[in-house]
């Protein structure tokens, strides 16, 4: 055989084991007697489990019944989903007045619509859209959910939210139809495209101001009945606590992480102390502290509602975990990036905001999503201190007279709900990672 | 090493205006005395090449000029401004002094064009259109205008280093520092980077280059500085430096490297 090949060796097709299904099976499942035995045993175990679940949960199950007794009459070995179905509204919305539930749905839809442009590649100004969601949406949603009288601050923020939402939606339409950003489009429309920067800015400001005034007048005429927070509950309450917790703990965590790496000793010691104290205490302790101890330290007559206390506790607790995730992400950025940023004259905030954070956040996505999933599940702890979140609701089914003693089915249903939410988040984070790292293949 | 550069030396562009002045400068890393009593004056348009064995303090010296490292004793005066703890001065110095690193240090999450326009837009407050125009001009000069929309990770090392040079030039610096710009490159890419640097030298830029590319040093350097163990051991015109090194340590170093 010749050692040196004079001609180019032609490509040959890959062996079957690399390309066909049969080849794959043979290679991975039935490569030896022992592996074949393992495969068969595993298949048998999976069959036993699955068939049990299907028989109990579907074939023998009761879906329509008035009370638990009827489930038993129908089948003794099947699940009683009728109880869960009867309680569905409670599981999702708690004791929120039935005729006002549309407000929650509407709030949810609003959020989806607001965030929609973030997924559309044609729409410009994503950072502004993201910021507007974080700054304005909570107030609009908060007002939708609570209702009642608005103070002047609330009026102002709700107006801001409406203005931002309208601008956002028109921007999305302009982006989709004309493939440009809203300000450019408006300038073309008004024939001012060639005007100076300053004139353009003034025209835009005037437009926004008009919109703001109109929105203010409009929202002043709203009359939404008040729903006290004690009636909030179910998945809705869980999502509110977790949502606010996540949205607020993220920026707070970033600042804590920067503080911990700061060159200023006071900032560093304070941040480190804060992080370590909250991290070394279980969440349930923090929740108890917030709801029972905290009011004792406050001046008499100072009443903060329990929900706000819980949310603050969740934010502080989670911010510390977020801070450690951010710190890990920051440490993964090579020193050269800081030096590169410094040599083009960027200061501390410029370096962090433009160079370091965008790269670090990308590395942090898996951990951040892990944290979000963890927090979502941890918020069920608030059922211990007397809030009727989803877990609280699921457990009260067994105390409802027609369904007394019905534990298993509600909890399994809750588990499935959590699985769907958490698994889709984790899948989405995986997708984000792939998408964001498309640019830099090292 | 690369003999192709030895043909013909560039005329000196040095003027009498002082760009960098270093007086009795000392630096320590903890207990370790990295730079010892350094004195150096660089005039406008002058081109220095610094060489020496690793650990001799040559990189640290130019990093001190850019205020990436702090020095503990003595003065460094860059473009009339004394380096110290004053933060405002530091930011100003960094915009006047461009630096090119061994590992390029491009920003991997930004396109080439964004890498180049970031500084002018955010630091120099230049209008975006003008920044893009400048960036494209410098990309032409380093001969990769067609790569403007790519990401750094999609380019070869030589191309990345040329982008890094263009990025520094976009800030229109008065001085350019090069910290072993070709050490991380594959041999066939060294020349393309050195060619860009020679062209830059022809424009009369004040340059300090830490490198072991002796052919390059012979072509562009007004003076070659040899450093060893924190001392400037020898400085001389290139022909004298390479032809007739005075110091024993220089001779030994040159015999190993040439």
Automatic annotation (TrEMBL), chain A:
Xref: InterPro entries: AA_ABC_transptr_permease_3TM (IPR010065), ArtM/GltK/GlnP/TcyL/YhdX-like (IPR043429), MetI-like (IPR000515), MetI-like_sf (IPR035906)
Gene Ontology MF annotations: transmembrane transporter activity
Keyword Cell membrane among record annotations: yes
CDD domains documented for this protein: TM_PBP2
GO terms of biological process kind: amino acid transport
Gene3D superfamilies linked: MetI-like
SUPFAM superfamilies according to UniProt: MetI-like
Classification via Pfam families: BPD_transp_1
Transmembrane spans: 37-59, 101-120, 127-146, 152-177, 203-222, 234-259, 280-298, 310-330, 342-361, 381-398, 410-428
Principal location: membrane
UniProt keywords, alphabetically: Cell membrane, Membrane, Transmembrane, Transmembrane helix, Transport
A GO term from the CC aspect: ATP-binding cassette (ABC) transporter complex
Annotated ABC transmembrane type-1 domain residues: 235-429
Subcellular location(s) of the protein: Cell inner membrane; Cell membrane
Membrane topology: Multi-pass membrane protein
Similarity section: Belongs to the binding-protein-dependent transport system permease family. HisMQ subfamily.
PANTHER family hit by this protein: INNER MEMBRANE AMINO-ACID ABC TRANSPORTER PERMEASE PROTEIN YHDY, MEMBRANE COMPONENT OF AMINO ACID ABC TRANSPORTER
Stated name of the protein: Amino acid ABC transporter permease
Organism: OCS116 cluster bacterium
Automatic annotation (TrEMBL), chain B:
Keyword RNA-binding: no
Superkingdom field: Bacteria
Alphabetized SUPFAM superfamilies for the sequence: P-loop containing nucleoside triphosphate hydrolases
Keyword annotations: ATP-binding, Nucleotide-binding, Transport
InterPro entries noted in UniProt: AAA+_ATPase (IPR003593), ABC_ATPase_HisP-typ (IPR030679), ABC_transporter-like_ATP-bd (IPR003439), ABC_transporter-like_CS (IPR017871), MetN_ABC_transporter-like (IPR050086), P-loop_NTPase (IPR027417)
Residue ranges of domain ABC transporter in the record: 20-254
Pfam families, sorted: ABC_tran
GO molecular-function term, one example from the UniProt record: ATP hydrolysis activity
Family (UniProt): Belongs to the ABC transporter superfamily.
Protein name listed in UniProt: ABC transporter ATP-binding protein
